[in-house]
Amino acid sequence: MLAILFILFCIFTGTLLLWCLIPSFQYSGCNDVRGSEIKIPWWCVTIPAAYITGTVISCWAVYLFAYLEEALHPGAANPLIKGNIFGVLLILILDILLFIIIKKRETKPAFPEHDPLKKHPFIYGLWLVLALFLLFFFYRTFRVSDGELKVGLSVFSDFATHVGMERSFAVGNNFPTAYSHYGGSDIRYHFMYQFMMGNLEFLGLRIDHAFNIPSFLGMLSLCMLLYVYGTKLTGNRGAGVLSVVFLLFRSSPSFFKWLAELEPGDNFLKLLKDRTEFWSYTDKENWGLWNLKVYMNQRHLAMAMAFVLVLLILWTPCLKSLKGKYDKKTALVLALFSGIMLGAMSFWNGAMVIGALAILFVIALFSDNKPAFLLLAVIAVGMSMLTSRFFINGSAVSPSFQYGFLADNATIPGTVDYMLKLTGILLILVAICFIVSSAAERVLILAFSAPLILAFTLSLTVDITVGHKYVMLSLNLFGIFAALLLYRLWKISRLSIRISAVILALILTMTGLAETKILYNIDKRSLNYETEDPLVKWIEDNSDSKDLWLSAPYSLDRPVLAGAMLYYGWPYYAWSAGYDTNYRENICREIYATADPARREALLKSEGIRFIIVDKEARDYYDVSEASIAEAYDAVYSEGEDEYSLTVYERKEERKAE
Fold it and tell me: Residue 118 has what pLDDT?
C-alpha cells in the first residue's frame, strides 16, 4: 500500500509542478503545431508527463536522504527508512509551496472543456487494449507464480543487472552506490531506475510488481506522449495512433526475407507459430535489439524516452517556420525546467539525455529562442557532469570515432545498405516525406536524424552496441512521418491509393508483429527461482551491500537475487560499463587456485572480499584449491552434495569500507 501511495504521490507532485511552472502544458493536446484544433484528452498529456517528472524528483530526494543517513551513520540497518521519511517530507513541502503559488494566481488551472469520450469513445478503448497488451507482456517476462520467481528467457540477460541492483537497494544498503556485478568500486551504470524499483519493493510491493508497475507506467507514458506528439505534428489522431503502432511493431524486411527463403510446401504459419528465435539478417538483430523485447529487457528505456517527447512537445513550437517564439520569461522557465529535469535524468538513462540534446541542438539552429536552448543545454550538461563526478571515478564516457555502427561494411554505401536491411521501407517513406513536406517538417526530420548520426559516427563507451538506443529514438520519431505520409495518401479519395496506404502500413508492421509472436514463444520457457530459497534468505540475513562476494562470474543466479555485491560478476555487464574486467578475472583465478594461504589472504584483504563461494559454477570456471580454502576459512553455509555442493566461506575481518 505504501508503494502505491508513493507512486500516486509522485504523479501528484509532477502535476503540481507542471501546473505551477508550465500551466499551458495541459492544453498541449488542444491544438496541433499549426494551431488547428485536435482535441486530445488532457490526461494523455498531463498524467504521463507528471508521472515522469514527479518520479524523478521524488526518487532523487529519497535517494539523497538515504545516502546522507548512511554517510552520517555508517552501517545503518535500513537507510531507506529515513530516506523515505525525509525525502517525502521535503517533496511534500515543495508541493505545499507549489499549491500556494497556484492558489494565489488569478488564473487557476482548469482542464480543457472538451471530452472526446462522447464523440470518440474508441480513444479510451484503444488505451485500454494497449494497457492490457503491455501488462500481459511485462508480467509474462517477469512474474511470481506458484512460489517461484519466473524470469522469461527473453529478458534474463539484462535482468541480471536489473535484479542485482534493485535487490541491493531493496534488501541491502547500497550507499554509497556500487555496481552489483563489480562491487567495491564506483557506479558507472545509470542506476536510478533500479533504485526506484528497489524502493518500491522496500515499501511493500512484491518484487514482480515493483518491476512491472513502474515499467508499465513508463511504457504507457511513452505511447501516450508519442500519440500526442504525433497527432500535434500531423494534425490527425489516426496518424498519432499509427505512430504508436510503428513504435510497438517495427519496420524491417526480415519477415519477408524469411518468407522468401522458405522451401515450397513449407507451412509458414506453423513455422512462425513455433519459432523461438528472432531473425538475424543484421548484426545483433537476433538479440531483439529493435523490437518490443528491448522494452521488456531494458526497463529504464521507455520512461527516459518518454521524457524526450515531453521536451519535444515543449520546444517544437519554437521553430521559426511555426512562428511559435516564447516570450523571455516563459522561455527562461522552460529552459530551467527542461535543463534541470534532463540533467537529473542522466543516471536514469544517460543515452536518452545525449539523444535529447542532439535533437534539441538541431531544433535550436532553426528557432528564435536560441539563448533559452543554450541555457537548457548548459544546465543539463552541468548537472550531468556534476553527478558523474560524484558517482564515477574518472570519466563517464570514452568517446571515439567509430563510423558505421554495426554495419558489416563501414562505408557510406555499406551503412545505407545496413539501414535498409534493418528498417525496410521506413527510411524510404521518411525520405519521400522530407521531399514533399513543409519547412518545419524538414527541420524536424533532420533533428530526429541527429541521434542516428551520432550512433553511426561516435562510440561513447567501449561497447558500440549500446548505441542502439540512439537508433531506436530516431526510428520511433521517424515513425511519425511515415504515419504522416500514409495519412496524406489516405486523404486521396481513390480506392487504389487507399489500398496502397493499407498495404504500406502492413509492410511497415509485419516483422514487428511476427516478432511479438516470437517473443511470446520465447517466454513460454523461463528461469525459475524459489521465492523462499534458503541461500537467498541466508545472504539477506547475514550480509549486506558492503560485503564483497568472490564467486563464479554469475549472471542471474541466486546470490544476485539476494542483492549480493559480486566482486566479479558476468564480465559483459561490467566491461560494457567501462570497468577493468581483465584485472579482476586474474585476481579471481589466483585466489581460487593458489595453495598458498598467505597469498590468498593478502589478495582477499587488498580487494576487500569477505565471502567466498565454492560451487559447481566456480569449479567449472576456475581451478579451485577447495581443500586449502576450507582449511583457512570458516564454512558458514553449505548445501548440496558432491559436484553440486555449495559452500560459503567467510573471512573474519573488518570490512574494507569501514
Answer: 62
Spatial distance between the Cα atoms of 363 and 378, rounded to a whole number of angstroms:
16
Closest to 545 (Cα-Cα) out of 80, 139, 226: 80
pLDDT at res. 113: 58
Q: Residue 466: inside a domain, yes or no?
A: yes
**Residue 398: domain span:** 240-299+354-522
Residue type, 183: G
Measured CA angle at 239 (ends 238, 242), to 5 deg: 90
- In angstroms, rounded to a whole number, what is the distance separating the alpha carbons of residues 435 and 384? 37
405 phi and psi angles, rounded to 5 deg:
55, -120
Rounded-to-integer distance, Cα 450 and Cα 470, Å: 9
DSSP reduced 3-state for 550: strand
Q: Is the pLDDT confidence value at 479 over 90?
A: yes
Q: Pairing between strand 526-530 and 458-459?
A: unpaired
pLDDT in tens, 426-461: 999 999 999 998 999 999 999 999 999 999 998 887
479 and 374 belong to one structural domain: yes
Query: The C-alpha cell of 522 is what?
Result: 520465447
Number of domains in the chain: 2
Query: Contact at 8 Å (CB) between 46 and 56?
Result: no
Overall pTM > 0.90: yes
Q: What is the dihedral of CA 397, 400, 404, 407, to 10 degrees?
A: -60
Q: Are residues 515 and 552 in the same domain?
A: no
pLDDT (0 to 100) of residue 178: 94
What is the Cα–Cα distance from 153 to 210, expressed in whole angstroms? 20
Mean pLDDT of 467-493: 94
What's the pLDDT tens digit per position in 225-263? 999 999 999 999 999 999 999 999 999 999 999 999 998
State yes or no: cis peptide before 176, omega within 30 of 0.
yes
User: What is the amino acid identity at position 551?
Assistant: S
CATH assignment of the domain containing 640: 3.40.50
Q: What is the mean pLDDT of residues 471-482?
A: 97
> Do 562 and 493 share a structural domain?
no
Assess contact for 529 and 129: CB atoms under 8 A. no
Cross-strand bridge partners of residue 527: 151
Q: Which long-range contacts (CB under 8 A, 24 or more apart) does 20-26 make?
A: 20/98, 20/101, 20/102, 21/333, 21/337, 22/314, 22/333, 22/334, 22/337, 23/105, 23/107, 23/109, 25/49, 25/313, 25/314, 26/109, 26/111, 26/112
